Amino acid sequence: MSKIVITGYGVAVPGSMNSIQFEKQLQAGSHGITVIQDDLLTKNKLLSLGFIDTQVYSRKEKAYKRYPNISKAQITTAEEAVQMAGIDFTRKNIGVFIGTSLGGTEGYENSIALSSRGNYKVFPTFACGHTNYHSTASAISNHFNITGITKTVSTGCTAGLEALEDASLYIKAGQIDSAIVGGVDMANTASLIYAFSKIRTLPLGHHIEVSGLPFSKNSKGFVPAEGSATIVIEKEEDAIKRGATIYAEVVDTKSNNDGFGVFGSDLEGNRMYQLCREVVKDRTPDYVNSQALGLHANDIVESLTHERLFQNSIPITSIKSMVGHAFGASGLIQLVASIIGMEKNFIPFTTRTDKKGFEDLQIIDKLEKSETSEVLITSHGYGGNNAATYIRKY
Description:
Elements: E1 4-12, H1 19-28, E2 33-37, H2 39-42, E3 46-50, H3 69-85, E4 94-99, H4 106-115, H5 127-131, H6 135-143, E5 150-153, H7 159-172, E6 178-185, H8 190-198, E7 227-235, H9 236-241, E8 248-257, H10 270-280, E9 287-289, H11 296-310, E10 316-317, H12 320-323, H13 330-344, E11 346-347, E12 368-369, E13 374-380, E14 385-393
Parallel strand pairs: 4-5, 4-6, 9-10, 9-13
Antiparallel strand pairs: 1-7, 1-8, 2-3, 6-7, 8-14, 11-12, 13-14
């Protein structure tokens, strides 16, 4: 079986518009999180959110004027990944696989505001495109003139890694030779803030010092964020044949579900542990790039899984304190961070944490210059899906 390798990547997160800026942000440990105080959304209470720079989705092409911002952001990170990969689509049977959890809530909110008031005359003719989850995958196919397999994966916060899982399966089955794999979410709107505030998972009324702190019982909730990441994957022999730079091998990617329904999850992390054990097998990663995001129940699952799988013998880290949690894009953002760390010989670290309640974990909380060659990336979220990816430096 041919190896699947990564030959390009692109990223946009709060604080960075591309992978070059992201590398600097990861090494500096600086966050791109904004504290807002808005009477309409938060009734004058503080709330921390992560926004990407508007330049990421402010495209000049007339053809994209009416595209939703989420699709334009994905095009931008895909351009970076494709340029890095140097891939010739005319000689490739290529697929497009995009993961998103919320699909961009801005389109829904704008449409509902008009339709609920009966404003048919001013209702936009492009509303369908702004409310369709598949718009972003379609936008990528159009932008690069790809007419093959084009899929949207929407499985919650694991969507980006599950898009990678699906794309890998298509390559292994021989249906495609390579794929553009992306994850994107831009949903910092009223409905999201209200929804997560109702279940008390947002740090509403709290300052940044206690907002989105991974591995800390003092964290008052997670920081919702916008974000986009894209990678190009292909068969190893094809990449070698065309002289491409190979950044990492995708050793394995798998997913499962807790089976607790819409409003529940396995707080003991049994399914997450089983999944990671299947992906890791008898290997030992240099560290785990964790999905921990400052929700105590979520971070406990990460801790329990780590303890059972590795007996806390290897380091663990989370970048969510820098960039917030970008839902369906989060897993691929973690993956890109790990690839950059492999290239530049450092481990992306967990900033802004006091490690309270997680003292037994080897949490990397400062910049460590270190050669790394194997990383486990974890992701799980609302709806009970779990996903894990194991990558190896090429």
